[in-house]
Specification:
globular; 345 residues; 3-stranded mixed sheet; alpha/beta
Length: 345
């Protein structure tokens, strides 16, 4: 509250949480086993503020009730504003192999998204649900080549399928089960390092070729004429990610907000990193991104890029909240963003 930040809590959807503090879990104890407690979204009975620790089950709605009792509803001054439906589900077999060793299906994640959203909103109807929480472009396209992708590929992309099926489920449930489409974005764009090797711009290095690639990389967010040096640029151009996402939302689940809850363009301590970040924020405003959160410490020049928009004078003065259309003839050389402030009207 003191920082005037949006509060966002990640909820477990893969199925299990740790049951002890006994160190590494080997393959023999892959869930279900005594090393884990099962997660159930709805308790189906009255809540306790001191949950039973002997029943080997964690109830999500009981957790939400605890937050509500402690902080109030999301609509209130101190309440938890939103909840994420887990994190990067397409990667569960590699990030959480002891919980979810097999590749999840699209059907599984959508089913869990609906059930978890219903459980949250039954306790706090004013909370926002952040769904998808996708790690990157391959998940955007086909949920990391999900086992059941063939059943959904008529939508064109997994993002379209997720939006559409969540809309249909929301209609059936008579409540919105997806408020915010939640994505992560770590650019695949590459430049050459000091040794002439191609590396991703997300590194902290700032050699001249790498710096140039980093400064141009935000164009992938909007510029259909730009082809970045990456597998995305090679096989999927033109990308123009933000217009594409807005079009998907408009078609498949109108009214859904867009968030990038993890993103990083590298070069945190170099001026090219700040230039890239300032450009990214300009695009986030231009294309109506609801929420964004940088992954990693804010330091050096990148911190300055944040301050341009959020605290340019040390008194928490911000860039205006009304977007003004601006055009530029040479986007490779410069970016320009303008705004008005509704408080001045």
């Amino acid at each position: 509250l003191l920082m005037n930040c949006y509060s966002l809590v990640t909820l477990q959807a893969a199925g299990y949480v740790s049951a002890d503090f006994d160190g590494t879990v080997d393959s023999m104890d892959t869930a279900p086993s005594k090393r884990w407690k099962e997660v159930k979204f709805s308790k189906g009975s009255s809540f306790n503020l001191s949950p039973d620790t002997t029943d080997d089950v964690i109830y999500t709605d009981e957790e939400i009730n605890l937050f509500l009792r402690k902080y109030g509803h999301a609509s209130g001054r101190d309440g938890i504003d939103g909840y994420e439906i887990d994190n990067e589900p397409a990667l569960w077999p590699s990030t959480h192999p002891r919980i979810h060793p097999k590749p999840p299906t699209i059907s599984e994640y959508i089913s869990k998204s609906c059930a978890l959203a219903k459980a949250v909103k039954a306790v706090d109807p004013t909370a926002e649900i952040f769904g998808g929480v996708m790690y990157g472009y391959t998940e955007f396209l086909n949920f990391q080549s999900a086992p059941d992708w063939d059943s959904y590929k008529s939508y064109g992309t997994y993002i379209n399928a997720y939006l559409s099926t969540m809309k249909d489920s929301s209609i059936k449930a008579t409540i919105p089960l997806l408020d915010v489409l939640d994505l992560h974005w770590y650019p695949e764009a590459q430049g050459k390092d000091i040794n002439g090797n191609l590396v991703r711009i997300t590194t902290q290095a700032s050699d001249s070729s790498l710096a140039a690639a980093r400064e141009q990389a935000p164009r992938t967010l909007w510029d259909s004429s730009y082809v970045e040096n990456s597998w995305i640029g090679q096989y999927y151009s033109p990308v123009a990610l933000l217009p594409m996402l807005n079009a998907s939302i408009a078609k498949y689940n109108p009214g859904t907000k867009l968030a990038f809850t993890e993103f990083d363009y590298g070069g945190d301590t170099s001026i090219d990193g700040a230039i890239a970040m300032a450009d990214v924020f300009g695009n986030f405003g231009k294309y109506d991104v609801y929420l964004s959160s940088h992954w990693g410490a804010l330091q050096g020049y990148v911190s300055s890029a944040f301050k341009i928009y959020r605290n340019y004078d040390g008194n928490r003065s911000t860039f205006g909240d009304i977007y003004c259309k601006t055009t530029i003839s040479d986007p490779a050389s410069a970016s320009v963003y303008t705004s008005l402030d509704s408080r001045d009207s």
